[in-house]
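Thread: Alpha/beta hydrolase fold-3 domain-containing protein, structure

OP (GT): Posting the sequence first so everyone is looking at the same thing. Length is 324 residues per the record. Can we get the structure tokens written out before standup tomorrow? I want them in the notebook alongside the other entries.
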Amino acid sequence: MGSNSTEKEVAHDVFPYLRQYKDGSVERLNGTATCPPNTHPHVLSKDVIIDSRTGISARLYLPKNINKDERKLPLFVYFHGGAFLIASPAEPLYDASLNTIVAQANVVAVSVDYRLAPEHPLPTAYDDCWSALQWISAHASSGSGGGSEAWLTDHVDFSRVYLAGDSAGANIAHHVSFRAADADPEVVVRPAGIVMIHPYFWSKDPTESELSDPVRKGMVDKWWIYACPSEKGCDDPLINPYADGSPSLAGLGCERLMVCVAEKDILCDRGRVYYESVVRSGWRGRAELFVSEGEDHVFHIFNPQCQKAMELIKSVAEFVNSRD
């Protein structure tokens, strides 16, 4: 018998992230490495369970020099990228990125470990991240008995909660902010702002930059259709914020918005249009656009020590700490 006789048949090859076999099993090709918490000289971190029923967890980060009697700090709620298919807060590149942000910005951070497609098809990731914000919100009133995590109750200024994410995580931040806008402010904290790094939005109608790179465009099309197999395809409101059924951007649930794009990223045009659309929508907040010239998608994750990555993180830190 040949060696191929023992190989499983591939049902979906979602390059470069994973393969799904006809028996239903999934082999992830990227984003599977993990590292333990508490690996930074200036930042403490630990893993906590948010919902024991679903298994949703998070990695929490706290500056080591913090004192309980000092002023409370902003909270940076982070949703990682990976096309909704791969990665986790424990992935070494993401863990290093959060450590850097916490050290630079002097914030408390919650990096959410939401469940991934295809085992948990969308909208599971959105629901998990919404549950994480509800869990965080339970700590806002320390006397209510709703939250017991001391890193949050002792050190967080809940009037300065920022939703943040890269790529798919930035998409999640967009949707969670709208849920927060519609929720009872006595139950769920209203985010002060959103930091969207190279946001993953898409549609059936390509931009100029997408038309110039048909191979990469085809990959992004496939990622979304695989992660969210709906009849609306790439015009599902989850991926296209202007599609029928999408809420008006004027209702974005925060007062401040930072959109970061990278010049060579195939998603760059989408990020720019999103920023411009929010500004024109009648939304009453303050928005800013940060452009990394000559860089590609989530370059700061893969090359965190480069000058452009340090400039990006510095700008994010300044945004989160600004009270304008």
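GT: Both are above now. Quick notes for whoever picks this up: Residues 1-5 have pLDDT under 50 and may be disordered. The radius of gyration is 19 Å.
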